[in-house]
Structure formats: structure tokens, C-alpha cells
Write a structure and sequence with these properties.
The protein has 376 residues and is an all-alpha fold. The chain is 61% helix and 0% strand. α3 packs across α10 and α15 packs across α17. Keywords: Hydrolase.
Length: 376
């Protein structure tokens, strides 16, 4: 299948920060994807929390399974829109590499610890992982990914951090946050695929955990409509099959909505190429109706799952672990590996080390350094 003229073409990539000879059998975006899959940070995602901590159940999503689901949804949509599937997959697989242990709770705690030292942003950390913190090649630090992959990884960025990136890399991946332009369509698509994936799997995990129920989800129009349709088509359906069939239909409806709405936006904007996309308004989007329904679902999940007392209690415990680790390593850098302990930017070195931890390693280190037992 040929790429659309506004898709990202690896033959026209803005390139890598360190020039390399082309690979004989792979284009630049395929090569990026392969480097990400073989990275240490990618493997760690299997033991990093999505919503429920890793020890709370074997079937709950982790950052790894979430990333795979984003990649699957993203490739399906990209294929229909004639965008670059390999670039979408690379961005999707790398977008959470910078997440801390314990999900957003760990991120918030580490950000608080780093407030006097530039703060902590998980999207920026994902970029730092692929630019600096992976040490796999003799010629450079990081994975030396292409501009387009790095652009997609940096989903959000504060103005201050964007200006720092721009100063170090003029015209690079920080520029769009300074001049308010857009990333390429593949990056825009990954942002939306991320939202679709986590809304769907947080419903699944929330029901599995017992913290929310199918009956309570009846408040959500997007869920309830597809549940009623599933039961009308399969009158004897019961148990978890009802949940799975409802989520499947929800996912399909959202994917088809994105394809249709994006086609309409592309037809109206008529971008000539990928650079014209960057100068346009966002072009990968939901219809107005689906955007409203997705927002209502997110509000439901925030109210009933993310702020559930059990989740909040576990999050507070996790934040205590991160704070204790930060203080312990700051006081005794020799407790970290030498590559982190010898750094001049001590606070950032501690943050980098903690951010790279899995949930279970962070707990083991907490118990070792404090002598206190983690009691979930």
C-alpha cells in the first residue's frame, strides 16, 4: 500500500542526531521500532504499573501490555488512513518508556521531589531515555532515533523544558511547543490511540478488580449503548463475555469514528505533505459526538476508579516509597550504580535511577534502604 502524500515518509526523514549509514533491509522507522523493542527500558515496562500495582494480579495491564494495545490500535487506524504504520508502532511502543514505577502516583511523587531542580515530566523522561539513558551503542548515548519518532514520543512538554530542548537542538523536537505547531499525523494518531486504549482497558481492569461494576457503567452512554446492542444480538450472553463484547464494540466504534472524522479533516485542510500537517490545526480527531462521549467516560473512570479509596490508599503508599528512595539516594549516592552515583547533577541522577525502576525493584530497594516492610 502506498503512503498518502501527507504521511511521514522515511525516505524524507529529518534524520538522526548522529548520522548513520542506512540499513540494507529496513527503513529508518522500522529500525527505530526494532531498537525500542530491544532496549532495556522497554523490557522494564512489563513490571511497571498502569493503574493496579504489579503484585495485585497477574491479569491487570502493565505499561508493556498497554503499549502493545496502543500499537495495535494505532496500526489499524494508520492502515486505513495510509499513514506510516511502522512509525506509529515505534512511537506507541516508546511513548511510556519514561514512566516511573507505580504509575501516575510515582510520577507525581518524583515531580514533587524535583520541584527545586526542574521537576519531572514522564513524556520528557521518555525522550531522555531514548536520547541519553540507554547505553547500548559504542558511538553515542541513547538509541539515536529519527526525528519523527522522537517528535511523537514527546507528547507533552512544559514551555520551560521546550525552550531548553530548543536551545540545545535548534529546530528540533522542542520547537513545536514554542511556536504552537503540530507534530506529524502519526504522532497525533498515537495520542488518540493511547486515549482509546487506556479508557477501554481501565474499564476491563476496573471490573476485574471489583472496584466498578457493569451495572455502575450503565451511567456511561458510550458503554451502555454498546452493552445493550450486544445483549440484543446475543440474548443469552452473560458474565465476562458481556464485558468483553461491549468493550470490543466500543473500540471498533471509536476506531471507525477516528478514521471518518480524520478523513473529513484531511479533506478540508488538504495538506500537501507532512510539513503542511505541522502548520495545520490538529487533524487526527474524534467527531464532536464521540469526543463528548469519550470525555464522559474519562470523567466516570476518574470519579469511580482512579479516585476510589482503595486506589488512592495504594497510591499514597507508593508515593511514600518514591519519596523515601529519593531521600535515601540523595544522602548516600553510593547506594546507586556507579553510572548514576558519579553524576554531577545529583538530583537528576537520582530521579533518572528511580524513574527506571520497576514496581517490584522499587519496593525491594525501599525495604533494603529503610528497613521497613512494604505492606500493601
Amino acid at each position: 500500500m502506498s503512503l498518502a502524500p501527507y504521511a511521514s515518509d522515511p525516505a524524507r526523514s529529518r534524520g538522526r542526531r548522529h548520522a548513520e549509514a542506512p540499513a540494507p533491509t529496513r527503513d529508518d522507522f522500522q529500525r527505530d521500532r526494532d531498537r525500542i523493542v530491544h532496549s532495556t527500558a522497554f523490557r522494564r515496562l512489563v513490571y511497571k504499573t498502569q493503574v493496579f500495582l504489579n503484585h495485585e494480579g497477574d491479569l491487570f495491564r502493565t505499561r508493556l501490555t498497554h503499549s502493545l494495545e496502543v500499537a495495535q490500535l494505532g496500526r489499524s487506524i494508520a492502515r486505513a488512513l495510509r499513514l506510516n504504520e511502522d512509525l506509529v508502532e515505534a512511537i506507541a511502543l516508546a511513548h511510556d518508556l519514561g514512566h516511573t514505577p507505580f504509575g501516575h502516583a510515582g510520577q507525581d511523587a518524583l515531580d514533587a521531589c524535583m520541584q527545586a531542580h526542574g521537576g519531572f515530566e514522564h513524556n520528557l523522561q521518555s525522550l531522555r531515555v531514548v536520547d541519553e539513558l540507554e547505553h547500548r551503542y559504542p558511538q553515542y548515548d541513547g538509541l539515536n532515533l529519527s526525528f519523527e519518532t522522537r517528535e511523537g514520543i514527546l507528547k507533552h512538554c512544559s514551555r520551560a523544558n521546550a525552550e531548553r530542548i530548543e536551545a540545545a537542538e535548534p529546530g528540533g523536537v522542542g520547537r513545536r511547543f514554542c511556536d504552537r505547531t503540530q507534530p506529524g499525523l502519526e504522532a497525533q494518531l498515537c495520542n488518540l490511540a493511547d486515549e482509546i486504549a487506556y479508557n477501554a482497558h481501565d474499564i476491563d481492569d476496573g471490573v476485574r478488580s471489583g472496584l466498578i461494576s457493569i451495572e455502575l457503567l450503565g451511567e456511561v452512554d458510550l458503554f451502555d449503548r454498546h452493552r445493550r446492542e450486544a445483549l440484543a444480538e446475543h440474548p443469552g450472553l452473560e458474565g465476562r463475555r458481556v464485558l468483553y463484547e461491549t468493550i470490543r464494540r466500543m473500540l471498533s466504534a471509536q476506531v471507525y469514528d477516528v478514521i471518518d472524522a480524520t478523513r473529513g479533516a484531511l479533506e478540508a485542510a488538504a495538506p500537501a505533505d507532512a510539513d503542511a500537517v505541522r502548520r495545520s490545526d490538529p487533524l487526527v480527531l474524534f467527531s464532536a459526538g464521540m469526543r463528548a462521549e469519550s470525555t464522559a467516560l474519562k470523567r466516570f473512570l476518574f470519579r469511580n476508579l482512579y479516585r476510589h479509596p482503595q486506589v488512592v490508599q495504594t497510591a499514597e503508599q507508593a508515593q511514600g516509597v518514591v519519596r523515601a528512595l529519593f531521600d535515601a539516594y540523595l544522602a548516600a549516592p553510593a547506594e546507586m550504580p556507579e553510572t548514576f552515583a558519579r553524576r554531577d547533577d545529583r538530583q537528576r541522577g537520582v530521579a533518572d535511577y528511580i524513574a527506571g525502576m520497576t514496581d517490584r525493584f522499587a519496593i525491594r530497594e525501599y525495604e533494603r534502604l529503610t528497613g521497613q516492610r512494604w505492606v500493601p
